[in-house]
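Q: what sequence does this backbone want?
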């Protein structure tokens, strides 16, 4: 399976705005937390999982999330394709990142907040992989 956007939406009227995602199955989620980078120049990456799946949704602001399918977890090729996604808080779009991928997360606006969801609890498995931010540049 490939990374993809699960489309959400919003409804506005005189009372305000409702943001929703009726296309997402929340039953797989076992853990969630938020990410807020200190400034827009910081890149949070590269990190990912062989087994764990992730979903990301923007609570506030806007994020650029780069995704790479890893070919070799011991020594990945430095020429792997980088897929870019930009998601914002206007709709409750959710970026699905399957297992086998790593991400690089960058906020595009000060004060942006990202919700990260996982299909495993903290320390349920040992499945964290990290590479230097310069690895694919």
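A:
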């Amino acid at each position: 399976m490939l990374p993809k956007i699960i489309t959400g939406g919003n409804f506005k009227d005189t009372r305000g705005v409702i943001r929703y995602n009726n296309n997402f199955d929340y039953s797989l989620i076992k853990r969630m937390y938020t990410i807020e980078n200190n400034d827009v120049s910081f890149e949070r990456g590269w990190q990912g999982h062989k087994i764990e799946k992730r979903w990301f949704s923007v609570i506030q602001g806007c994020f650029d999330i780069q995704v790479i399918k890893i070919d070799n977890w011991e020594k990945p090729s430095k020429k792997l394709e980088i897929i870019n996604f930009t998601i914002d808080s206007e709709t409750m779009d959710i970026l699905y990142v399957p297992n086998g991928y790593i991400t690089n997360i960058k906020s595009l606006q000060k004060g942006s907040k990202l919700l990260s969801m996982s299909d495993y609890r903290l320390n349920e498995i040992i499945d964290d992989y990290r590479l230097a931010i310069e690895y694919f540049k």
